[in-house]
# Entry
Amino acid sequence: MIGFVSYLVFFLILALTFGIAVLGLNLQWGYTGLFNAGVAGFIAVGGYVMAILTGPSRPEVLGGFELPFVIGLAGAMLAAGLAAWIIGLMTLRLRHEYLAVATFGIAVTIHLVCLNWESVTGGTLGLIGIPNPARGLSESVLMQNVFYLLIVAVAALVAFVALERIVQSPWGRMLKAIREDEEAAASLGKNPARVRLESFVLGCMLMGLCGALYVGFIGYVSPSDFLPIVTFQIWTMLIVGGSANNRGALVGAVLVWGVWVGSGFLVSRVVPPEIQAQGGALQAILIGLILVLTLLFRPKGLIGEEVHVSRHAQL
Amino acid sequence: MSRQTQKPVLSASGIVAGYRPDLPILHGVEVAVKAGEVATIIGPNGAGKSTLIKAVAGLVAISAGTVLLDDREITGQPAHQLARLGAGFVPQTGNVFASLTIQENLVLGGIGLNRAEALARIKEIYQRYPMLGEKRHDKAATLSGGQRQILAVARVLIMRPRLILLDEPTAGLSPMAAAELFQLVRALAADGAAILMVEQNARAALKISDTGFVLAEGQNRLSGPAADLLADAKVGQIFLGQRTKAKKAAKKAGQKPVKKAAKKAARKTSKKGAKG
Amino acid sequence: MFMQHLADGILSGAIVALGAIGLSFTMKILRFANFSHSELLTWGGYLALIFLAFAGSFADLSASNIGPFSFGWPMLFAMLGSALATSLLAVLLHYLVFRRLARTAGHMTLVFASFGIALLLRHLVLLFWGHDPIYYSNELQFAILIPGGARVMPDQVFLLGLTILVVVFLHLFLTRSRTGIAMRGVAENPELARITGVNVDWIIIWVWVIGASGAAISGVLYGLTVQLRPELGFSLILPLFAAAILGGAGSLYGAVLGGLIVGLSENLSVMVIPSTFKPAVPFLLILVILYFRPDGMFGERK
# Structure
């Protein structure tokens, strides 16, 4: 029983952490219509900055600040936001497909930097020894995890409430106006470019927060934590949960993470050990299949686009 | 056989069509053209003229009604089949491939034929329109507006269609080029094709036509010999959307009895005020 | 060193060019950025293994190499077989996924679906063939010295020659055959093509076949001159997009030129920046082009 609860806590920590990133992506795609194919990159920025700010001093690698947990989180969010701001200035006027290619390229480049800028990121080995604030609070690992789960849950709740508020606010209504008809919004004196940039930055800050929380829990970070499959997982969570819907974002996170973990579990039980590595491919295949099938048989595709079409239809 | 008793090449009736199934633009329209006849569809903006011709051409979905080509039903046939069935369509814009040469444009016109036959017919086109022959290796983008229209029509002629559909063929042309094009249209009719045109340039088009159909708000308003329509004051009023003088019963032979509909429309339009 | 980088750039550019042709055409005609196109290169390379094995059951593979190359006639057979099989794969994906989605959903759904398919294809390769790199043959080749001090392998010369052949063939196809002309017509104006009597659905199938064949040949050539590995396609996504965007979607010559530019800039850049950052160069190219031309090289993305 304890084992099950313990596993559930572990599961929920990760699911909710990813959920925060999904909320960020929802703001970008669901509300603003920005196709960000580089989610993993922004999560990585958050994770690495957290590791650098809160971690111990390391030989030949930037570090040793040992700043408190919360400062680390804030720093991570700021760093991700800054990166988003710079990148957004360069790319946000691109239309959908090209924005997808550009953001994908950014994630690849960030990954490359993480792999090679050894003096800052530790290269392929990454950074270890990141402190988890829950560790000191209890002898029992389970209680530590429960505490961390509380931290993550609070963060997710705050993010959720904040986003819901923002979306109802005048700024949020402007977002909708821009997404529906940019020219009309511009003619009313709104500045679509700036609003889109703000949305992009805010969304990426949430992704940075996700990275920071993830790294704070696991205790170490390496480039292999932020492969493109992470981008794909976050997008799947958004689609399954229904975009332009913050509640759906969190539900989708839990669901998809559940499928991922469940299929991994199945694979490890069913697949003989010699081909475990190849069995791991089965997980990705399963998720990929589910996703493509969902897209195919859900007649309206990505919900965000459906709203777009049907608004125009009500003449 | 006199023109009157000939069966029409194109016969469309009860056409309900629109770009979206729940928003029809045409509400039960009919139109008919005989071999060797030039018929023009005219009407105010938004009347559905282009929609009608596109519906016949298979580019706009028809939700009700039938289109017959020489007694064969072609309602809802995919657009790419129509060329092979004997109906050629010249759209208003984008009616030539600008990045392809004249020769290549014509080759595509003959895509429904076997290669040898297509090349033979292209030769005929060059004989008939020497200008195209001279410029055959030039890209269509280098042609003037009038020359492009000729190419567009020539492309359709390769399939030797029984029915030729033209959507505003003189749009954007200088008066001289427009006159040339109308001459071309008359020549095609003289060769035996049935021609259905949509035209904004109502008077000029009616002058070279045999029959006219006046459309407004997606319905037939007046139809009949072009000469009669030219002389009929009601036509101008439909365009301007004013109340018609009710009993100008200009019911000449062949004119369709649409007085009631015209009266209804007059009441409607007078309520809405003059429309642009 | 410069000549060596130049030579490597041209060779790498050829591989990118062959792959980019298909991407460029599908971007123009199907109007979506297909992130799974690069996986057709991977599959092309790996499928050739199957055909090679098949041919090997009839003849001793190592016995009869053609000239100085590391392969014999079975490899050419395998290339052809792979092109056909990869085309089949692409058409299958088109029917099962892309065509359906194009009718019911927006462009970005197609892009996202292509992400999913890319993931599927890549992991299927992992599943069937495993992580480790595979080589078509274990033959050692002797490098040829060319003027300027560069060394090239005979197989690489074959790569260049074959690429040129393919491009010439495609040029003739697009300008002399009616199907090729129809394809160019569809690329410019699909509705007019339909009106003219072109069966656009058929042309789209042809586009997939040509694109997939180019990708397959490119993948085999990559496997021949470098190695086969599951990340083959993924590592080429950005170079392929860079080439297609540079050259302008829908242009054969643009894709070829774009490929060359990408290959050259990648390889020449190592003279200025650390080689570990080489993969970022195509991406930087993309950023630069799109910065000056946000609608694509020739404004096609309106």
Remarks:
- The two ends of chain B are 43 Å apart (CA to CA).
- Chain B is about 40% helix and 20% strand.
- Residues 242-254, 270-276 of chain B have pLDDT under 50 and may be disordered.
